[in-house]
Write a structure and sequence with these properties.
- This protein has one domain.
- It is 67% helix and 2% strand.
- It has 20 helices and 2 strands.
- It has a two-stranded antiparallel sheet with strand order 1-2.
- α2 (20-40) packs antiparallel against α5, α11 runs antiparallel to α12 and α17 (311-331) crosses α18 (344-368).
């Protein structure tokens, strides 16, 4: 059975009560991330013949306005809140415990991640033995694994669902203020600190303050608290807030980090990202009625199901395809890398590269998609899963900011690899579940 026929079968079996717009937003947000990363990446062959990596947002500053649309991580956290709210309530209704619920979340996040981590770990080990410059291997792994920051944060957000959901049940929309206002306070601390001093450690808590607040919006959508005029208000508040923060306030224009900039809106995340998310959610919810009528069409919904069935693989591997494809082109004499960004010829080559990277990603999806459907097993105790998730999250975060390949004797960064190994050993289920079959 082909992937398309499987998607059609699943589409026809979808209950009428399912909110299909959730799945569409999940697919669109990840595909936008992929396109945004590919568009912004600007590798080229320098005058010395060496491979240079630059960034479109740095080479063409006016392109930074595009990030107001392409920075869609808030949409994914928002959709995650809706989905986690449904699954947590369903588990509670069945009498399920935290460990069983968490097991399902972690397996879907950890299992697809292992192959890409293993690949870059193996490349790091082999690089010095094959005469590859360890610095290139380290840089390549860092660029390829940048997207893992999202999973590092999302794993922690998933761990906190019982707490954030209880907060929503008790405070409702007021919980947005409880979680969101600290982000503005921490930003004030950041911008009022002595210039040139390191970012205060407390400011890194914005990874929780910002993304938990956006995740909380998903609960609000699930309970019908974002209907009618509130959607218009959110769009106006978010868009107006971003404009004011970037034009009148101290925030940079770009909603993603730009190499060389003194301040990044994403590392750690700033409250302007929260404002962006509020505006994006409001605008997208205004389109909900039209989109849900469109998704009632069988083939449209089947396509959405198909994309969602491989979305983690696409997300995890898109930068690896870019890096390895670029390395092959450099090894072939710099094919397609001669144009300097953002020249007209570079844009012509960019279209060709987008097509080639898409083809490479589609080829990779086939054998890798199976990891999105991990084999069921007996859930580990809750404490082990929490420790596993925190260890795995730590490893992913370190990879996102420094790669896995290193310049040491082994060729890999042990401080990155060991938390990943610990997370896998502690968190993965053991043995088949009673009555289940290996998938």
């Amino acid at each position: 059975m082909t992937l398309w026929s499987q998607a059609l079968e699943l589409a026809r079996a979808t209950p009428a009560s399912r909110n299909r717009y959730v799945d569409l937003l999940r697919a669109i947000s990840i595909l936008a991330v992929v396109f945004g990363h590919w568009l912004a990446a600007a590798p080229y062959r320098g005058s010395s013949g060496a491979l240079e990596f630059t960034h479109l947002l740095a080479a063409a500053p006016s392109s930074q306005y595009l990030t107001w649309v392409i920075q869609v991580m808030p949409v994914f956290f928002f959709v995650g809140g809706y989905s986690n709210g449904i699954s947590w309530r369903a588990a509670a209704k069945r009498g399920g415990d935290y460990s069983t619920w968490l097991d399902g979340r972690l397996r879907r996040l950890i299992a697809p991640t292992i192959p890409v981590v293993v690949l870059w770990g193996a490349l790091g080990l082999l690089a010095p033995r094959l005469g590859v410059d360890p610095e290139w291997a380290a840089r390549g792994s860092q660029v390829a694994l940048i997207p893992l920051w999202f999973l590092a944060v999302y794993l922690v957000i998933a761990l906190l669902v019982p707490l954030t959901h209880r907060l929503w049940e008790r405070l409702g929309l007021a919980s947005l203020l409880v979680l969101g206002l600290p982000a503005f306070a921490l930003d004030a601390w950041f911008f009022l600190r002595e210039p040139g001093t390191p970012t205060p450690l407390a400011c890194w808590l914005n990874y929780l303050a910002v993304w938990c607040t956006v995740h909380q919006l998903g609960y609000a959508w699930l309970d019908g608290r974002l209907a009618g005029g509130r959607r218009v208000f959110m769009l106006a508040l978010g868009l107006g807030g971003v404009i004011a923060a970037t034009r009148l306030g101290p925030y940079p224009l770009s909603m993603v980090g730009v190499p060389g900039d003194a301040v990044s809106n994403t590392t750690p995340p700033k409250a302007v990202i929260l404002l962006l998310g509020i505006g994006q959610v409001g605008g997208l919810l205004l389109l909900e009625g039209v989109a849900r009528r469109w998704l009632a069409r069988e083939r449209v919904w089947a396509l959405t199901v198909l994309v969602n069935g491989m979305i983690m693989t696409v997300f995890l591997w898109h930068m690896t395809v870019l890096v390895l494809g670029t390395a092959l082109a450099q090894a072939a004499g710099g094919w397609g890398l001669e144009a300097v960004p953002p020249s007209g010829s570079w844009w012509t080559w960019k279209l060709a590269w987008l097509a080639l990277w898409t083809l490479g990603l589609l080829i990779a999806v086939g054998p890798l998609i199976r990891f999105e459907r991990p084999r069921p097993g007996i859930a580990a105790p809750a404490w082990r899963q929490v420790v596993a998730a925190l260890a795995f999250s730590t490893g992913l975060g370190l990879m996102a900011y420094g790669g896995v390949a290193g310049s040491g004797a082994l060729g890999v960064r042990l401080e990155v690899v060991l938390p990943i190994v610990l997370g896998v050993l502690l968190g993965l289920p053991k043995g088949p579940r009673s009555g289940s079959q290996a998938a």
